[in-house]
Write a structure and sequence with these properties.
five-stranded mixed beta sheet, mainly beta
Length: about 325
């Protein structure tokens, strides 16, 4: 009803409306809501006591959203009635000191996490409607995506997500006053290991010497380049070429690194295939060139004397079974480095 013009206008509404009734009470809750309580339904059956004409239900109409919703009541609600009066006491809105944060916990990179804010008045009772000005601030190693949904029943759903693993601080406040427990410490952990984002590095990946241990590292990462716990990833390495070479893999734990060591005994060209959880990592397979091993001993054989032509033989032997070198000089033998 427009009181200035005296004209009635039908207001479209969504949600389940309250059942038809008369002799009920209807009061305004601030400027945003109308509340209907109890009344007479007109339904009466003398043979069925379950069908009673009087009511004690409570309904709320959101004026701005044009939406009906039923208000849950405790078991101690007043008896059904009609022809009564009803008054709304304004308790001053939600209290930061009495409101609460529920369900906030650690989460995973790239996963949308949720928690709830429950608005309560200064007596600790949950507010029946929304409209409170709660604020959520999240700080940490990544800019987070945050959203707050007003459920219009005194609860608010907060969603947030981050792609960089690490420690975060979540602050929840109402009118610049922190709620109990705020700020909260939340840890964002790495997501599942993504083989396509894992890498290998180190000189031993592309070159080495026969008979000499060569090392390289495999770095395990999730889809957002966070280091993943090495223990949760199955790293498999195959080194093949002139011979099949076993590769020892040492798990370095949560830093997302595996130290790998191999000791080929024959020189030549090898292929190193690396997979994580059954999938090849970036740039796999790798080509590794193993050269002949270093010299480690010299032996002078034969006899000869001063001023005489020597028939001695100089033989130098490598640590590698694939490498040997011999020389037979025509003069006095010498081995110098």
């Amino acid at each position: 009803l427009d009181t200035a013009t005296g004209a009635w206008t039908a207001v479209p509404a969504s949600g389940r409306p309250p059942p038809k009734r008369d002799s009920c009470s209807m009061v305004a809750c601030g400027e945003d809501y109308l509340l209907i309580y109890a009344g007479w339904s007109g339904r009466y059956d003398k043979t069925n006591k379950a069908v009673a004409p009087w009511l004690n239900d409570v309904w709320l109409f959101d004026i701005g959203a044009s939406t009906w919703s039923r208000v849950a009541q405790p078991s101690s609600a007043p008896m059904p009635r009609f022809g009564h009066s009803c008054t709304v006491l304004d308790l001053g809105g939600a209290s930061a000191a009495e409101s609460s944060v529920e369900g906030i916990e650690d989460t995973t990179a790239g996963v949308e996490a949720t928690f709830a804010i429950v608005a309560k008045d200064k007596h600790g009772r949950q507010r029946p409607a929304g409209g409170e000005d709660f604020r959520v601030d999240i700080t940490g190693p990544d800019a987070t995506s945050t959203g707050i949904t007003d459920n219009s029943d005194g609860t608010y759903t907060v969603t947030f997500s981050a792609t960089v693993a690490g420690p975060y601080v979540v602050e929840v406040s109402l009118l610049d006053e922190d709620l109990p427990g705020s700020p909260f410490d939340v840890t964002v952990g790495p997501g599942p290991t993504d083989a396509g984002n894992c890498t290998a590095l180190g000189d031993g990946l592309t070159s080495g010497a026969a008979g000499v241990s060569q090392e390289f590292s495999v770095l395990t990462r999730d889809a957002f380049d966070n280091a993943t716990d090495s223990a949760s990833s199955q790293v498999k390495i195959l080194m093949s070429g002139p011979e099949s070479v076993p590769v020892a893999v040492e798990n370095e734990g949560a830093i997302g690194q595996h130290i790998c060591a191999a000791e080929p005994q024959a020189s030549g060209t090898y292929t190193i295939e690396i997979s994580v959880d059954g999938q090849p990592i970036q740039d796999s397979p790798f080509t590794c060139i193993v050269r002949s091993g270093p010299l480690h001993s010299c032996r002078l054989d034969g006899s000869g004397g001063r001023g005489a032509q020597s028939s001695s033989a100089l033989a130098c032997h490598s640590e590698s079974r694939a490498t040997s070198l011999s020389a037979r000089p025509t003069s006095r033998s010498a081995c110098a480095a």
